[in-house]
Design goal:
Structural class: mainly alpha
CATH topology: Helix Hairpins
Radius of gyration: 33 Å
Strand content: under 5%
Largest sheet: none
Oligomer: single chain
CATH architecture: Orthogonal Bundle
Distance between the termini: 37 Å
CATH class: Mainly Alpha
Number of strands: 0
Order of helices and strands: HHH
Length: 146
């Protein structure tokens, strides 16, 4: 009986297959967005570390002071850029999760509809088999009477 159900195809079978592929694609995209987010966070962490490595000169020439100031400014710009990248990656991840949720709802909807169609077909098959068995029983009964 289980094999019959697995082999039964409905007009929704191809849609279910397509929707399942969309869900898998969305899952892969979430994995990629997670990787991107981790890279962005790691870059931000590295930018903070480079900011802490810049030493503030307590004495020396004005050129050393200006060079240190320039390094600090560059590190701050890099931190700001990486913070924006983290925010962007988080937004992308959120959008990918929303898309996965939509895809899963669509997949489950078509899967449910397909299951209902399969149940309907099985009921029709059982009814046809019952009619066929009734006919066979009637024919054998009539043969015995003759």
């Amino acid at each position: 009986m289980e094999k019959k159900v697995a082999k039964l195809k409905t007009k929704f079978t191809q849609l279910v297959v397509i929707k399942k592929k969309e869900v898998q694609k969305s899952e892969k995209e979430i994995q990629q967005k997670n990787i991107d987010l981790q890279k962005a966070k790691e870059s931000l962490k590295m930018a903070y570390n480079s900011l802490h490595e810049v030493a503030n000169p307590s004495n020396g020439s004005i050129s050393q002071l200006l060079a240190s100031r320039s390094l600090l400014q560059t590190a701050r710009v890099q931190i700001k850029h990486n913070q924006e990248w983290v925010e962007f990656a988080q937004d992308q991840l959120k959008n990918a999760k929303d898309q996965l949720k939509k895809d899963m709802i669509e997949y489950e909807k078509y899967k449910y509809i397909e299951l209902q169609e399969i149940k309907k077909k099985l009921k029709e098959i059982k009814l046809a088999e019952a009619k066929e068995l009734d006919e066979i029983a009637l024919m054998t009964f009539n043969k015995k009477e003759k």
